[in-house]
Specification:
247 residues, alpha+beta, eight-stranded mixed beta sheet, 16 strands, 34% strand
Length: 247
């Protein structure tokens, strides 16, 4: 039994506008499974769920983002200094704005999408040469080792590195983006604007998977979701995530 990360869920006042931004940013396509949801995924005959691709779902909510920095964000990969500069300029032309999260003088560029969700455009790094446009999904946390223990059991990705400051997982196929946990000061104070959605494999029992996650330390989460086919949970540090009920 295992689960796979299949998409990053981003809440937005205008799912269509934010979805278009991310599609243009990544060079992907947009579709919609229903009102208030914009799906952003690779083009070229892509079929969801892909064994390794992590897509983006933008979902409409009535509340705007607070000024609090998201504790989950995307890092975008680049192949050269010129590519990084070109991508930053293109993203700003699409509506991204510079963001100051206390990063200081660093080689990467911190931006925010049109609704203020922070993300990074990384300088070229060899480790991300084959990830595709999304280098990593990055989670701020208090204890990367504890997060590695939980998420290493929760999903079927391989743990590549774990230290007091950093934990890194990636698909067992060793392709696609990384899932990274970074030690950051402070604790979660507001609901995450960005979270991961997990999916069981065909034939696996969703209820059994949810029970397994609870046994690992996940807790049930009531976001007012009502009767829906997915289950909302939080990891041991309170990061929200969903276990989907469709495939």
């Amino acid at each position: 039994m295992a689960l796979r990360p299949v998409q990053v869920n981003i809440k937005a006042l205008d799912d269509s506008a934010v979805g278009r931004f991310w599609a243009e940013a990544l060079g992907w396509s947009v579709s919609s499974e229903g009102p208030g949801v914009t799906n952003v995924e690779p083009g070229g005959g892509f079929v969801w769920p892909d064994p390794v691709a992590v897509c983006i779902d933008v979902v409409t909510v009535p509340e705007p983002k607070t000024t609090t920095k998201n504790r989950v964000h995307l890092d975008l990969a680049t192949t050269s200094a010129a590519h990084q500069a070109e991508l930053v300029a293109r993203l700003q032309a699409l509506g991204a704005t510079p963001a100051d999260v206390g990063q200081g003088d660093v080689p990467w560029t911190v931006l925010a999408d049109p609704e203020g969700n922070e993300f990074c455009v990384l300088e070229p790094r060899e480790i991300y040469r084959d990830t595709g446009p999304i280098a990593a999904v990055v989670v701020d946390c208090v204890d990367p080792r504890a997060m590695a223990r939980f998420w290493g059991e929760a999903v079927d990705w391989t743990l590549h590195e774990v230290t007091d400051d950093h934990a890194v997982l990636r698909s067992a196929k060793d392709v696609g983006p990384y899932l990274e946990f970074l030690r950051m000061p402070g604790v979660k104070t507001v609901p995450d604007r960005v979270h991961l959605d997990l999916l069981p494999y065909p034939g696996d029992d969703k209820a059994a998977e949810v029970a397994r996650l609870r046994g690992l330390g996940a807790t049930d989460l009531d976001l007012g979701q009502g009767d829906v086919p997915w289950t909302c949970l939080a990891d041991p540090e309170g990061h929200e995530f969903c276990v989907l009920g469709r495939s």
